[in-house]
Specification:
alpha+beta; two-stranded antiparallel sheet; Outer membrane efflux proteins (OEP); 508 residues; 4-stranded antiparallel β-sheet; 10 helices
């Protein structure tokens, strides 16, 4: 017994001194420009806002910057709707449940760091047969058999497999936390896009309502001139055709608006039949947005964080696969008591125990370990490629929307001039028509041009608001980099910090 206990004690430090086989993880590098091609200073309406506003110059990793980013648009209705996304959206609830599942799997993996202990007991009454060969008479009476046992088993983490499984589970949970943040941001942005589309349709609806009223007045004017013999019947026909066309356009806007209203209802977890937004034309201007530098995206974007964490998880899987080449060491113990009755159950002679170790090593597996290791390395390469592609896509999205805002700002000024010119042209031809110097065809042509330019102005404003929302999303919104994953200490916060420095993975 003494020698076995000494063997157990001598083997225990191996659990602490075991080495880790496989590659160390180093965060992957990716191509990063020192600044965006579309510099904020070149884009009117983009950059650092004045002190006191929601948007202010700060590091994108600062968790206090624009958490409720939609408030920058200054629309109370939008803010009210955004607050309902997190509480009611079913897609977000599913993402949150996946995150809780990933956190629970950390505890499952971490359980292998501790021994497994079990207890058992049984009791029976035994009587030998009197007809059994060589059965002495003293064994003919019934006897009791009571046993209580405890067993212990523990795998020594010699090669770091268990540690890597815990690390891989943690990285997976961190990726799931980033997925949850990305899902929340995506839904918030989708709601804002649908909202501004709806409000743009409201603006267009008001424009067409006013146009229908104006065209009805023009038709009445043409009819009066016809009745007085000052205009031909063709003028009335043209005015009636113009009015009918505007009425069709006015009615058709309702189809798109209803679809956006239904989409908003689903995003906030309500049946479309029970949700209504009163018309309110879009009138807000795009807010000022702090852009920062490209390297900030590696901290700001939850999808980039998720991709990096999955690369870390894939790296741990390589180490787990490599550890299969090495022998495994397990410790086991057994102790208990067995007696014929409660009176002698716990007497010293009734005690029993066993302790020992076992070592196993696979000699031949037909290439199974080689194949699993190769697959793990290939999966790591996939994760690295996905990470780099995600960062490149993020940079493109920011550049796209910076360019859109810069160009649309210029286009807005041009379109305002075009609307003014079209109005002047309409007034001129209307006056010439009333003076009998031009036909009504010139008036209808000018009306069509004026309406089209007004519609273009509404559409450009719609595109500006949507580009602003997409820029906020491309910059990571108000995500604070939180990747808390502790399964038994959920109150603790773990802020994930991404770096741009890195080298190729190396083994040891």
């Amino acid at each position: 017994m003494r020698s076995r206990l000494l063997l157990l004690l001598a083997s225990s430090p191996l659990a602490l001194a075991g080495c880790s086989v496989g590659p160390d993880y180093v965060k992957p590098t990716t191509a990063i420009s020192p600044a965006y091609k579309e510099q904020p200073a070149q884009a009117p309406g983009i950059g650092s806002a004045a002190d006191g506003t929601l948007w202010k110059p700060a590091r994108p990793s600062d968790p206090t910057i624009a958490t409720n980013w939609w408030e920058a648009f200054g629309d109370p209705e939008l803010s009210s709707l955004e607050e309902q996304v997190g509480a009611a959206n079913q897609d977000l609830k599913a993402a949150e449940a996946r995150y809780r599942e990933a956190r629970a799997l950390i505890g499952y993996a971490r359980a292998d760091e501790f021994p497994t202990i079990g207890v058992g007991g049984d009791g029976a009454s035994l009587k030998n047969s009197a007809d059994a060969p060589y059965s002495p008479s003293r064994n003919l009476r019934a006897t009791g058999d009571l046993a209580l046992t405890t067993d212990l088993s523990y795998e020594v983490d010699l090669w770091g497999r268990i540690h890597r499984e815990v690390t891989a589970a943690t990285a997976n949970a961190q990726a799931s936390a980033a997925d949850l943040a990305a899902a929340r941001l995506s839904l918030q942005a989708e709601l804002a896009l649908d909202y501004f589309n709806l409000r743009s349709d409201d603006a267009l609806q008001r424009l067409l309502d006013d146009t229908v009223t104006s065209y009805a007045e023009s038709l009445q004017l043409a009819q009066v001139r016809l009745d007085r013999g000052a205009a031909p019947a063709s003028d009335v026909a043209q005015a009636k055709s113009q009015l009918d066309t505007a009425q069709v356009q006015d009615t058709d806007i309702g189809v798109e608006r209803a679809q956006f209203e239904h989409a908003i209802a689903v995003l906030i977890g309500k049946p479309p039949a029970s949700f209504t937004l009163a018309p309110a034309p879009l009138k807000e201007a795009p807010p000022t947005i702090p852009v920062g530098v490209p390297s900030d995206l590696l901290q700001r974007r939850p999808d980039i964080a998720a991709a990096e964490r999955r690369a870390a998880q894939a790296n741990e899987q390589i180490g787990i696969a490599v550890s299969a080449y090495y022998p495994s060491l397990s410790l086991s113990g057994f102790a208990g008591a067995e007696g014929t009755s409660p009176a002698n159950w716990f007497d010293w002679p009734s005690l029993l125990w066993a302790v020992g170790t076992s070592v196993s090593e696979t000699i031949f597996d037909g290439g199974r370990r080689d194949a699993k290791t190769d697959a793990a390395r290939a999966d790591y390469d996939v994760a690295i490629a996905n990470y780099r592609q995600t960062t490149l896509t993020a940079f493109r999205q920011v550049e796209d929307n910076l360019a859109a805002l810069r160009i649309l700002d210029r286009e807005t000024r041009q379109q305002d001039e075009a609307v003014g010119s079209a109005k002047t042209n309409l007034d001129l031809f209307t006056a010439r028509y009333l003076g009998g110097r031009d036909s009504y065809l010139q008036v209808t042509t000018a009306q069509t041009s004026y309406l089209q330019n007004q519609r273009n102005a509404v559409e450009i404003e719609r595109r500006r608001m949507k580009a602003s929302v997409r820029l906020v999303k491309a910059l990571g919104g108000g995500w604070d980099g939180d990747l808390s994953v502790e399964p038994d200490q959920a109150h603790k916060r773990s802020v994930f910090t991404q770096t741009t420095a890195g080298q190729e993975v190396s083994g040891h």
